[in-house]
Amino acid sequence: MTQRNVVFPPGRQTLYERNRYSPAIKSNGFLFVSGQVGSHEDGSPEPDLEDQVRLAFNNLNAILGAAGCTFDDVIDVTVFIVDPESKFETIWKVIPEFWGNAPHPTLTGVGVTWLYGYQFEIKVIAKLPDADMHLSKSD
Q1: How many domains does the chain have?
Q2: What is the rounded distance in angstroms from the CA atom of residue 107 to the CA atom of residue 127?
Q3: Cβ neighbours of residue 60 under 8 Å, at least 6 residues apart?
Q4: For residue 134, how many other CB atoms are within 10 A of its CB?
């Protein structure tokens, strides 16, 4: 079995070990990040929706930073929203604080009925900044 190249953000390894998943894995020049929610360090949800979205992005950015990336390196985003019809506008007014300038990453939005006590989750794939150095000139 191939050893997974796992990326852990500072201060949250116990949370990931307790829940039995990796926050992110580097593979073939890409970073695959597990869905991030607006959880505090102890794993509890932030109750305010706008603050929960901000915290989810801050948790995402901690993982990206641990891998040497920023949100500018993100190429694909999937968001999961509980009851998107009633929450979309509130969530989407927070997004520009983190999203950056065009061109934006691809985006898939999924409405769900349950997120383990959360209202918003974001999952991304990013290109590792040093990935171009490992590609051959013929690529």
Answers
A1: 1
A2: 15
A3: 33, 36, 71, 122, 124
A4: 10
Residue 33 tokens read as: 């990040």
Q: How close are the terminal C-alpha atoms of the chain, in Å?
A: 28
Q: Which residue has the tokens 């171009």?
A: 132
Residue type for 47, please?
P
Task: Provide the whole-model pTM.
Answer: 0.90
Residue 30 domain flag:
yes
What is the pLDDT confidence band of residue 133, given thresholds at 50, 70 and 90? low
Domain assignment present for residue 139? The answer is no
Please tell me the distance from the alpha carbon of residue 78 to that of residue 53, in angstroms, as a whole number. Answer: 14
φ/ψ of residue 125, rounded to 5? -125, 130
| Band of residue 132 on the pLDDT scale cut at 50, 70, 90 | low
Measure the CA–CA gap between 84 and 41, rounded to whole angstroms.
Answer: 26
- CATH number of the CATH domain containing 129: 3.30.1330.40
